Amino acid sequence: MPFYVLALVLHGVIGGLDVFINHEWLARLPSRRNALTEEKLHSARELLFCFAFLSLGWFEWHGAAVWWIVLLYAGEVLVSAVDVLVEGEIRVLPRPERVLHLFLFMNLGALIVLVGQALLGWSALPTAIVFVDHGWASRVLTVMGIGALVWAVRDGRRAR
Known about the structure:
By secondary structure, this protein is mainly alpha-helical. It has one domain (3-159). 78% of the residues lie in helices and 5% in strands. It contains five helices and two strands. Strands 1-2 form a two-stranded antiparallel sheet. Helix 1 packs antiparallel against helix 2 (36-58) and helix 3 (66-90) packs antiparallel against helix 4 (95-123).
């Protein structure tokens, strides 16, 4: 199993903990009127990760198709950069949230390197989207993808 798949599973676990512990329990973001912009950003990130979990959990992206994955991760970096600025202006982040964000950013860096290595190899192949089954990890990423989609819709509706 490729290391990028394991890093993606780890990212889903850490991100899920961040959402449940920090966003829902400690900060109660959905009930805060001043957090609407933050909720929009979270919705966008959750949608990006829904696509990433499903796209990398079941497929390899060869040739020109690698650009789909590049766009997903470029979007994630952009959303995360804006989110860091918005969060800091809206609220003081509790210590558990700052710690989980540190782990998320470290893992995102590793994930980008690992996915980037795969993309370099895939880019040299003829353009195709190739089905792969990473066993238990593909199934876990599917559950995470569905969960991320549900949360993206929920946060997006809340932000409206």
